[in-house]
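Hi D.,

Good news: the full-assembly prediction came through. Inputs first.
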Amino acid sequence: MSLGKTNKYLGGFLIAFFLTAAFLGWVWTPFDPLAVDLRSKLQAPGAVHPLGTDEYGRDVLSRLLAAARTSVTISILTVSFAVFFGIILGSVSGYARGWVDRVVMLFTDTLLAFPSILLALALLSILGANMYGVVLALGFAYMPTVTRVVRGAVMSLREQEFIEASRLMGHPVLYTLRCHIVPNCLAPVIVIATSMFGSVLLTESALSFLGLGVPPPAPTWGNMLASARPYMGQAAWLGIFPGLCISMTLLGINLLGDYIRDRFDPRMRGL
Amino acid sequence: MHDHSALLRVKDLELGIAGKPDSQIVRNASFEIRPGEIVGLVGESGSGKTMLGRSIIGLQPGAIVRQSGAVYFRGQELSEMTGKELRKLRGADIGMVFQEPMTSLNPSMTIGRQLAEPLRVHTKLSVSERRTKIIDIMNRVGIPSPEARLNDYPHEFSGGMRQRIMLAAAMLLKPALLIADEPTTALDALVQREVLELMVELTRDNGTAMILISHDLPMVARYCERVMVMRQGEIVETGPTDRILANPMHEYTRNLLAAMPERGPVRSFADESKPVVEVRDLKVDYVSRAGLFARAAHKQALSGVNLSVRRGEVVAVVGASGSGKTTLGRAIAQLIPSSGGEIRFRDMPVEKGAENWMDYRLNCQMIFQDPFGSLDPRFTIRRILSEALYHERDLSDDAREERVRRAVREVGLEDAHLDRLPHEMSGGQRQRVAIARAIISEPDFVIADEAVSALDVTVRAQVLRLLADLQHRHGFSCLFISHDLGVVEQLADRVVVMRDGMIVEQGLRDRVFDAPQSDYTRALLSAIPTLERTETGVELSWRFDAQEAGTHGVMQ
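Then the structure:
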């Protein structure tokens, strides 16, 4: 149980820290994250620039804060997209069964067959590299997982007697789905959604690193890491700080995710 | 008070949850079992009877520990024995038969090997000696052609056969004590009697003492010389069966006896009164999906059922498991599609999309068996009930609330229950909510599918009384599906007996119960002991003798 508490507090602290950073990046940054100042380029961390400056003399701290905001926005939008459409597709296919189910599952399994980053790459080359392109591409890539989980939960739920009772009371199908079925299969969805935040963040960073994410000069942790590569020898802080941001956020999400999973695990209930 | 002839002596035994000294699952249990004696341990779910039985041979779950007291077997304290000595005792001297015959046999081992196991562990017999012994005992428990079946796996046997095999395994070493925990609860009534009678016969022949743990007082009373009644972890009454039946001392025992169903009054219905629901030649097929090497198989679950329920009438559907009675209920409620025949409601055929479809849907409500599965775990009772008024759109919020409150009071609950969630209520209370939900919209027709089967005896009696009461007051027609003939006798006006998806007999209740016409009905009735009230107390009887009823003939 003490391990669970560590998960909860450490994970919660890390997530709260980065969420605050994202909020701060939205309202205030010490410098303009886009302002180029070639005179002060590649400065080591110091009094004026706590985390140093990059090859164009932009303040790294300001860029990290702005990037946090972009990353959090992208993650939230992507996960919401995947969860929303995943629930719709999954519950419809699990409840209707028959040919509807087969069509949805064909579509889902086809999407699942691709590695999500490959799928996102393909979609991005069609949609064009901008923030909403990234959201849409990643949302599509992550939707099938949610669809699968929801479908499974709905299939076992629809055999339950309270669903049959709802049919007997003459409730429309949509009402039954909305009021009885979806709320009862949310627990596993919340668990996947948590861990999905982490992978979306990572994939988004990877996409930016590959130059297919949010286009420069807007900062993201991924493209900051990518542009730091040529300067690793002379200005290591350029790579270290974005890298730390990515890994610490991931750690926080995973710890909190473990805690949430334990909370929703039926075997842990009532303890 | 020091009786050296006792085989098993339990003294002041207290069981609790490990690490929680004030949690008590069994309190102050003291009793003795003499050699060769058959003793019943009766109690409702949660009374601690299973834990008490298991703790005798140290098989209770790990979280449960003995807090104090002593268990002596042949004068030896069990907790002082080493693991090795205990293992020697189990099987060889104390045998155990569990409730679930499917899970207590290893599914991946042949019956022959499983039966050989105790002999291999506890005796030094040779392979061929073991084989003769096994075939002997299999013959003894009535497994046909045992030589041929030694290499079969448990799933190739029926539930009753599997329980016979369990019994054979337990009796192979002729233990001095057999602990049977609900040995026949999972079996059909017909098979139940046969297995129990076999058990009693075998233990008597071998001089084995038996503790028969069960929730079914008449069943236990039938076979046991002595009965112990348990409640909330305490043995509240112990005594000879006759005395307990005739003159129960403890209030709880009296409640248990009073809860036994008895025949309800005869009500007459005018012959010309029109049926509310009528079923003509109803058929239901189950189609198994065609596999790679298999063609789609059709299994007929209902093959042509004709049935009618008149206004205000309670029609019971009885039959063994697999007889299609549940399928019938679901097909009439149109929860599963029928593959032939017709359902008529108020003399109009019911069909999906037809004009009277919604009317029928709202007028045909159902009470399900499982009070845990039939209520949405996330809904409060208020929401569950007001949801049943979904189609009464022009109801104001106040009027809706008023209806909900009335319904809740009508089923014997209070307004305070309205804000509870299902898991905050007991099984009986949940079933009351399920009943309230079914009747709140004042339907003409209610299908109760094993509506009281999951409840404990005393709660069952209360819910049954409530159901009968509501039926009288509202006058809805009711299709009461049950395997429990006692309950049916109390409630039904007419009885329909089903077997293999067909109706074998139907008629007025008294006629079917007193003068059954088909052998199958007679066998069903003969399988259940009844308690009859006389001036001196309660007397136990069978309705028909098994042999006379030809149980065996029907079973094959």
